[in-house]
């Protein structure tokens, strides 16, 4: 189901290049709190994860608001938590355009954005301004951190630490993102030794702010389980699974573009890998499920599997801005 307004706008937006449509919608964000009023989820849907109370179980996944400029809008649209970023220690333009593609029939996206962002310091300033103005959302705001393109993998730890240092005290939680497919070598940081080195530096540096680890669905089951164990050992507060996939289910192979696939075609793989992550976590840390969620049934399924909460991105593009409050309303009706 689409919002009536979005049903009108979508054909026009979908005629535009995907990133231009994104920017157009983004410019309208300041209007959202005014148009939507506040659509806070039913209080009975609240969930507490690593000491942070989500307004409802459906949160905003990283990547939609890289620079944290839309907090009031995301809250007004009913997201239970808001993850901003990925930001990197150095501001960077990302990959050349076009770098975002729609699979309209399948409800999927392929992106190779490459962490286009204004940098961790700019995000810290933006978040600081919102906090100082007393407009901090009533739902948790996480900062998702990645590695700058110019930083070689051997110096990755220092790069993440720079971001943590400037963002400490500004965000409610951190996410160490080692799972995006569009920064060369990034996913190698999911291997046991580099991951141990990274997390054992970041967790203490965050000095009490919860650190989550975000993993890729393209890891073999054993490697995924190992990464979860490393995260628990290092004191991470939880796991976010999964990021986009570089694999291509049969139908999506028609769109011959490199990058990470998300949305409905990711769902079967994400669901299987979330199962692996849940088994490895064995209740020792919460798991936030991401990948292909677009209906209340999808949310229920991930929660029933054992996820503490979920996040979404792609369905927001296909179903429109009313999606999240609709999902929460349906979940509250149970
Ligand atoms: C255009 C686009 C950009 C993304 N950028 C990021 C990012 O910067 N950092 C990150 O951790 N995940 C990023 N993601 C991945 C999403 O956060 C999410 O893990 C993935 O899309 C699966 O969820 P979905 O099927 O609901 O979209 C991005 C996804 C898309 C579609």
Description:
With 334 residues, the chain is of the alpha/beta class. The protein has a single domain, classed as Alpha-Beta Barrel (TIM Barrel). Helices cover 38% and strands 16% of the residues. It is built from 12 helices and 13 strands. An 8-stranded parallel beta sheet has the order 3-13-12-10-9-8-7-4. It has a 3-stranded antiparallel beta sheet with strand order 5-6-11, with no helix packed on it. It has a two-stranded antiparallel sheet with strand order 1-2. A hairpin with a 2-residue loop joins strand 1 (47-49) and strand 2. Helix 8 (221-234) packs across helix 9. Flavin mononucleotide binds at residues 61-63, 86, 100, 109, 111, 113, 115, 144, 177, 180, 214, 243-244, 262-263, 266, 290-293, 312-315.
SSE arrangement:
Elements: H1 4-15, H2 18-27, H3 32-36, E1 47-49, E2 52-54, E3 58-60, H4 71-76, E4 82-87, E5 100-103, E6 108-111, H5 120-132, E7 141-145, H6 156-167, E8 173-177, H7 192-205, E9 210-215, H8 221-234, E10 238-241, E11 260-263, H9 267-281, E12 287-290, H10 296-305, E13 309-312, H11 314-319, H12 323-333
The structure holds flavin mononucleotide.
Name of the CATH architecture: Alpha-Beta Barrel
Domain module tally: 1
CATH superfamily: Aldolase class I
Number of contiguous helices: 12
Report helical residue fraction: 25-40%
Named once each, the bound ligands are: flavin mononucleotide
Mean pLDDT: 93
Q: Could you say what the CATH topology is called?
A: TIM Barrel
Quaternary organisation of the protein chains:
single chain
């Amino acid at each position: 189901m689409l919002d009536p307004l979005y049903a009108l706008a979508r054909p026009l937006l979908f005629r535009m290049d995907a990133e231009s449509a994104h920017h157009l919608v983004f410019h309208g964000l300041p209007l959202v709190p005014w148009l939507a009023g506040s659509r806070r989820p039913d209080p009975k849907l609240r969930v507490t994860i690593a000491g942070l109370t989500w307004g409802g179980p459906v949160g905003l996944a990283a990547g939609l608001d890289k620079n944290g400029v839309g907090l009031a809008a995301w809250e007004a649209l009913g997201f239970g938590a808001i993850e901003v970023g990925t930001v990197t220690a150095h501001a960077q333009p990302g990959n050349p355009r076009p770098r975002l593609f729609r699979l309209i029939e399948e409800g999927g996206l392929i992106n190779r954005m490459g962490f286009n962002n204004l940098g961790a310091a700019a995000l810290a300033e933006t978040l600081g301004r919102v906090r100082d103005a007393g407009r901090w959302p009533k739902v948790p705001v996480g900062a998702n951190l990645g590695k700058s393109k110019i930083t070689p993998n051997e110096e990755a730890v220092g790069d993440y630490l720079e971001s943590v240092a400037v963002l400490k005290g500004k965000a409610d939680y951190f996410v160490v993102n080692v799972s995006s497919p569009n920064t060369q070598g990034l996913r190698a940081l999911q291997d046991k030794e580099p991951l141990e080195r990274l997390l054992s530096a970041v967790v203490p540096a965050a000095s009490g702010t919860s650190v989550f680890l975000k993993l890729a669905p393209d890891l073999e089951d054993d490697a995924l389980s190992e990464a979860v164990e490393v995260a628990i050992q290092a004191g991470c507060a939880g796991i976010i699974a999964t990021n986009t996939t570089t694999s291509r289910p049969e139908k999506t192979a028609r769109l011959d573009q490199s990058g990470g696939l998300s949305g409905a075609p990711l769902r079967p793989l994400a669901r299987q890998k979330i199962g692996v992550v849940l088994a490895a976590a064995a209740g020792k840390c919460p798991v936030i499920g991401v990948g292909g969620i677009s209906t209340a049934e999808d949310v229920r399924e991930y929660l029933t599997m054992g996820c503490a909460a979920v996040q979404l991105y792609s369905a927001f593009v296909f179903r429109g801005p009313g999606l999240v409050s609709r999902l929460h309303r349906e979940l509250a009706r149970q």
